[in-house]
Amino acid sequence: MKKIGLTTTVPIEVLIAAGYTPIDLNNIFITSKEYTKYIDMAERDGFPKSMCAWIKGIYGACLQNNIKDIVGVMEGDCSNTKALIDVFKLKGINIHPFSFPHSHKKEDVKKEINKFMDIFQVELEEVEIIREKLNSLRQLAKEIDELTYKQNKVSGFENHLYQVSLSDANGDMSAFEADLKKALKDMRKRQPVVKKIRLGYIGVPPMTGDIYEFVEKFNAHFVYNEVQREFAFPRADIASNIYEQYYDYTYPYDMEYRIKELEKQIKERKLDAIIHYTQAFCYRSIDDIILKEKLNIPILNIEGDKLNTLDARTKLRLEAFLDMLLDLKESKE
Predict the structure, then answer these.
(1) Would I find Metal-binding among this entry's keywords (predicted)?
(2) Between 195 and 78, where is the model more confident?
């Protein structure tokens, strides 16, 4: 199957039905032991230092891994993606456009997905067959999520890893399904590990993956990963078709729609606080203003840049925040 690169989550059901293997360039970039070489490659080719490291990493991952086709999300993703797509075109890479309509109307979502199916010359029936297969994987990820926040048997990092990987099913649905089943078999047998502070992680998946292990040193753990969970489409099983599934996806649409789901999860998961991760030079940093105004819960905003580990300043801020939360919780008890 021919590889096709993704800059964010898109209807991979269409791509797989068309005979492509979707490859999430974000995952290639951040899991590489030499992730900085992707950033360096972009900067050598003229990308400014004052640009999000994810954009530069995606660019480098695409060229280094010889990806010749890219799905370019023109609406509903990072504002820098449009410029990135233009550079990809300059490099001779084939661009296949897709948009999450800002209107967030069902008829507009349906129109965009139909256009996407037309580009790849597949029919709805073919796409729904693939969706059904993917939904069996999503149900496994849903169980991992429930073992995280209901039974405390899964770490925040594991929760993050298996859900974020559903953006492309690790490029192999069958192999990834086997990995999920194997992981679940072990997770179900574990004894619960209960921490005092229940945290939610919101915002784009982190470059600093060590944040999950770090907070556990302070009697805290993440029981919710917002965007990673959305990548895993936890409500796909109640969507009657692909149109409803991608209409119900919170990440690319307006803040009001996203906040409704956040409020629901804060209550259901009994969260004590939220860590809001943003990337340096990203417009989504402004979301923090709205989130702190709308959500009735303590929120700490941290910002990542090029490092894939937490810096000393961020560790200090996290430690102080968690100490405060622990003191508050113990005083109430």
Answers:
(1) yes
(2) 195
